[in-house]
Amino acid sequence: MLTDLSSLQWQNRIIVVHDVGDAEKAAALLEDNAPGITDRDLIWLVFDGSETRTNYPGSIAPELKANTLETYRLEPGQVILIGKDGGVKNRLEQVDLEALFADIDAMPMRRNEMRE
Q1: Distance between start and end Cα atoms, the chain
Q2: How far is residue 1's CA from residue 87's CA, in Å, rounded to a whole number?
Q3: Sequence ranges of the domains in the chain
Q4: Phi-psi region for residue 77, left (φ > 0), alpha (ψ -120 to 50) or beta?
Q5: CA distances (Å), 38 to each of 4, 12, 88, in order?
Q6: Which candidate, 29, 70, 80, 112, has a CA 20 to 30 Å from the CA of 16?
Q7: What's the CATH number of domain 5-108, 3.30.70.270, 3.40.30.10, 2.40.37.10, 3.40.50.300?
Q8: What is the C-alpha separation between 36 and 87, in angstroms, rounded?
Q9: What's the mean pLDDT when you consider all of the chain?
Q10: Taking residues 17-29, what's their average pLDDT?
Q11: For residues 86 and 73, what is the distance between their CA atoms, to the nearest angstrom?
Q12: Secondary structure (H, E, C), the chain
């Protein structure tokens, strides 16, 4: 059961969306871009009030949201990109997949993945 994001380190990049204006639209955008998300080893979480939407294939613990918000100091309306190393790579005010994909594709680890 996923209680925090540390178990995903070195395996996945993570997009966390916290209480943005239209969480349903944000989740739909992420779902609609599944091939690009999968190709970039992305796990996404959309926190909307007490609801969490995600592409994480396993179970999610109730404390995941609180642990994530505390660890990454997320404010309502923020979107963050976390690299495979566990560090925050970008902090946005809306889901901008084009910008997030560009950030990821510029990362040295991602460039190596694309070459292989």
Answers
A1: 31
A2: 22
A3: 5-108
A4: left
A5: 21, 10, 19
A6: 112
A7: 3.40.30.10
A8: 21
A9: 95
A10: 94
A11: 14
A12: CECCHHHHCCCCEEEEEECCCCHHHHHHHHHHCHHHHHHCCEEEEEEECCEEEECCCCCECCCHHHHHHHHHCCCCCEEEEECCCCCEEEEECCCCHHHHHHHHHCCHHHHHHHHC
Name the phi and psi angles at 109, rounded to 5: -65, -40
Q: What is the pLDDT of residue 21?
A: 87
Cβ atoms of residues 37 and 30 within 8 Å = yes
Could you tell me the pLDDT band of residue 116, with boundaries at 50, 70 and 90? confident
CA distance 107 to 31: 23
Query: What own/partner pairs with CB < 8 Å and gap ≥ 24 does 88-94 have?
Result: 89/13, 94/20
Q: Which two tokens stand for residue 21?
A: 């204006």
Rg of the chain in Å (alpha carbons): 13
